[in-house]
Design brief:
The chain is of the alpha/beta class. A hairpin with a 2-residue loop joins strand 9 and strand 10.
């Protein structure tokens, strides 16, 4: 069994034989469902360099000894500015870390520290204990999402942004579901702040019977 907990915004905790955090933005996140010091991790995945995604990754890694996986340029940036942490830099493609299969996949988005561009944005397909989870990161819908299903499917759970303005809105995310063909979908990256206000029920209606849409409030979980 793999448990997936929504921590708010684009942050998730995935717990099975290992503990994985994705984009652990908690400090300063008005929707955060946990404090950084409450979380344990073996691995932390970062989708891009924006502060609402790197978030508390460094602090959690220092405290727990978790390895941070990120785009090569972002991994170098983090370790150069935070000696003592362990990073694993990669680029689009597959790897395996401590028995966890990870594929870093494209995302259509920018990546910077607010001033300088750092690496590229990405998403991840993670296989833990036989369960396949796709975290899209911040992205617009793109036709090559079909390849993720073809190469790495069936995807058990897709975590998709629906907030618009910076990412897909409900309409685009529903199209992504059509391309990805996941079994279950959880919407994310919406309603944290007014610019990304969105109605998850609208998204669920647009998806229809293409997948099971599970709307999680921050702090809620599902099991796979």
């Amino acid at each position: 069994m793999v448990k997936v907990r929504f921590l708010g915004h684009a942050a998730f905790e995935i717990v099975g034989s290992k503990r994985i955090l994705i984009d652990p933005f908690l400090t300063g996140n008005p929707a955060a469902a946990a404090k950084p010091e409450e979380l344990e991790a073996d691995l932390i995945l970062i989708t891009h360099a924006h502060g609402d995604h790197i978030g508390d990754a460094v602090g959690i890694a220092k405290r727990t000894g978790a390895k941070i996986v990120a785009m090569y340029d972002i991994a170098n940036y983090l370790v150069e500015n935070n000696p003592g942490i362990t990073t694993i830099g990669m680029n689009y493609g597959p790897t395996e870390v401590d028995g966890i299969k990870i594929v870093q996949v494209p995302a259509w988005h920018s990546s910077s520290d607010g001033k300088y561009s750092i690496g590229n944005a990405c998403g991840y397909v993670i296989e833990l204990d036989g369960v396949k989870i796709y975290h899209a990161g911040d992205t617009f819908v793109f036709k090559d999402m079909e390849l993720l299903n073809e190469l790495y499917g069936p995807i058990d759970l897709a975590l998709l942004p629906i907030g618009g303005h910076f990412t897909m809105g409900p309409k685009e995310a529903a199209k992504a579901v059509e391309l990805l063909k996941p079994r279950k979908v959880v919407p994310m990256h919406y309603n944290t702040w007014p610019p990304i206000a969105a109605d998850p029920e609208e998204f669920k209606k647009l998806v229809g019977d293409k997948a099971e849409v599970i709307i999680l409030k921050p702090g809620e979980s599902l099991e796979l």
